[in-house]
Amino acid sequence: MSLKDHPILKAARGEEVPYTPVWIMRQAGRYSEKYRKIREKAGSFMDLCKNPELAAEVSLIPIDEIGVDAAILFSDILVPVEKMGIGVKFLEGKGPVLEPKISSLEDVRRLRVPVPQKELSYVLDTIKLIKERLKDRPLIGFSGAPFTLASYILEGGSSKNYIKAKSVMWNERELWDSLMEKLSETVFKYLRSQIEAGVDLVQIFDSWMGVLSKEDYEEFAFPYTEKVVNRLKEEFPQVPIIHFGVNSQHLLEVNNRLKVDVIGLDWKTEIPYALTKVDKAIQGNLDPVALFADQETIESKVRKIVADGLKAKGHIFNLGHGILPPTDPKKAKFLVETVHRISKELRG
Ligand code: CP3
């Protein structure tokens, strides 16, 4: 089988597949003991992201341990932000901290658009190492979307209410537009370099877009994501793009206008409802906490999602957000096997 006929790529393109392919957001992460060991050896989380040998090893863990259909590059959406000129630290139990905070037009003018081949070469080297070792399955590249990255940059980290980000958006239009412009350029170049280095498809994480009303999303965030997607599709029409965010049911119709191939759904979005708004392939959307339920419960939830997914143009199974660190890897493995078994059964 040539890699371009892999079920994940076929499902993304809306072609017939023998079973529903599955991968898991944050599959290369802390629920795995092997990950925790490598992470300890590497030093900080950022050190691990910058170590191609170890990062490649981490990317491949879930292929062996839980049998997912694709690997995802091990990195973080904030990795390119550091090269724009903002310090990024991950503090234990606190999440990311970004410094200095960006609050004026002058600050934005100082931010740079990184040249990935130079400043982010460790990411591209990681991709090349994974591709040498992963022969039979696709590799997913990724980036944050301009809005989600802008929210981290303006808030200085994670946020509950996005007061700073939204204030800039509404009150300081020039600052907002120049930041979003720089981020769009950064995200486009970063994803292009990942594709050139060998990834087979990409996911754009606009994780927090759902905090915007439809009206604000359309005015302040969507146009920048659209620009990135259009430029990628112009250069790489054959590389599928997945677009994902949480709590964004109200934005499904708008996002369906993006030239992406797959719309990622969080676990609160009902697939039959999504299919009234989206005519593309879908990805998702089991509640990550369902992996703490017994096998019977997992199986019945999987059956419903797989059956609903058969009505979409294409379906890639995933959780509705990242796998949680306390998850038992055996449950994740059971999930993957169950998706494969049930989806074959339902296809007859
Ligand atoms: O999916 C994968 O396995 C690939 C690697 C990956 C990571 N982060 C590794 C990571 C990917 C695709 C991401 C994306 C990411 N990072 C997003 C978008 C996805 C989403 O959750 O909506 C966001 C918002 C971030 C920012 C981020 N990174 C936060 C808020 C945190 C701290 C919270 C936490 O879970 O600790 C991180 C850290 C992070 N990124 C870890 C991993 C494995 C944990 C670091 C560690 O302690 O080892």
Description of the structure:
The protein is α/β, with parallel strands linked by helices and 348 residues long. The chain has a single domain, classed as TIM Barrel, CATH 3.20.20. 49% of the residues lie in helices and 12% in strands. It has 16 helices and nine strands. The strands form two sheets. It has a seven-stranded parallel sheet with strand order 1-4-5-6-7-8-9. A two-stranded antiparallel ribbon has the order 2-3. A hairpin with a 3-residue loop joins strand 2 and strand 3. Helix 10 packs across helix 11. The longest helix has 25 residues. It starts with 6 loop residues before the first helix and ends with a helix. The relative contact order is 0.14. The site of coproporphyrinogen III (CP3) has 22 residues, from strand 3.
Task: Summarize the biggest pleated sheet.
Answer: 7 strands, parallel
> CATH architecture, please?
Alpha-Beta Barrel
Low-confidence stretches: none
- What is the 3D form? globular
**Which oligomeric form is depicted?**
single chain
Q: What is the CATH topology classification name? A: TIM Barrel
Distance between the termini: 22 Å
Q: Got a strand count?
A: 9
Could you say which structural class the secondary elements and strand pairing correspond to? alpha/beta
Hetero groups bound? Answer: coproporphyrinogen III
Order of strands in the sheet with the most strands? 1-4-5-6-7-8-9
Q: In angstroms, what is the radius of gyration?
A: 19 Å
List the total number of helices. Answer: 16
Percent of residues in helices: 40-55%
Order of helices and strands: HHHHEHEEHHHEHHHEHEHEHEHEH
Q: Give the rounded overall mean pLDDT.
A: 97
The CATH class name reads Alpha Beta
What share of the residues does DSSP label as strand, in percent?
5-15%
Number of domains: 1
